[in-house]
Design a protein that fits this description.
The protein has helices at residues 2-18, 64-82, 89-104, 110-115. The chain is mostly helical and 118 residues long. The longest helix has 19 residues, at 64-82. The protein is elongated and about 100 Å long. The termini are far apart. Belongs to the complex I NDUFB11 subunit family. This is NADH dehydrogenase [ubiquinone] 1 beta subcomplex subunit 11, mitochondrial. Complex I is composed of 45 different subunits. Interacts with BCAP31. Keywords: Electron transport, Membrane, Mitochondrion, Mitochondrion inner membrane, Respiratory chain, Transit peptide, Transmembrane, Transmembrane helix, Transport.
Length: 118
């Protein structure tokens, strides 16, 4: 069966070369149809930015206020995350080690060293 398939393949390619573009059938035998309501979907350009004439107030759309609230919450969250305190374990351990070393007298107290400079 495989031998017949390989033998027929060159004949099929020759048959495709013999057909001219005028005799070749198209993929669809029916005429092209336009979907939807059949009306024109293109709005001709008016020359005004977003179709609003100067001096007229644009009509608010339903998605605008939820989008403003969403974007505002993103900005507030970003500011809150930028100014949040550092609560990692390594920061706590460093501060605790510094306090213990200052209490034992190994490290000088930074608040008392500023007074001695005068």
């Amino acid at each position: 069966m495989a031998l017949l398939r390989h033998a027929a393949a060159p004949l099929r390619s020759v048959r495709c070369l013999r057909t001219t573009p005028t005799t070749a059938r198209s993929f669809s035998l029916t005429t092209r149809r336009q979907g939807g309501g059949g009306g024109q979907q293109f709005d001709p350009p008016t020359g005004w930015l977003w179709g609003v004439k100067p001096g007229e107030k644009p009509e608010p759309e339903g998605w605008e206020w939820p989008m403003y609230i969403f974007c505002g919450s993103i900005v507030v969250t970003a500011i809150a995350m930028a100014y949040k305190p550092d609560t990692t374990v390594s920061t706590w351990a460093l501060e605790e080690a510094r306090r213990r070393l200052e209490a034992e007298g190994i490290l000088p107290d930074p608040s008392s060293s500023g007074d001695n400079k005068n």
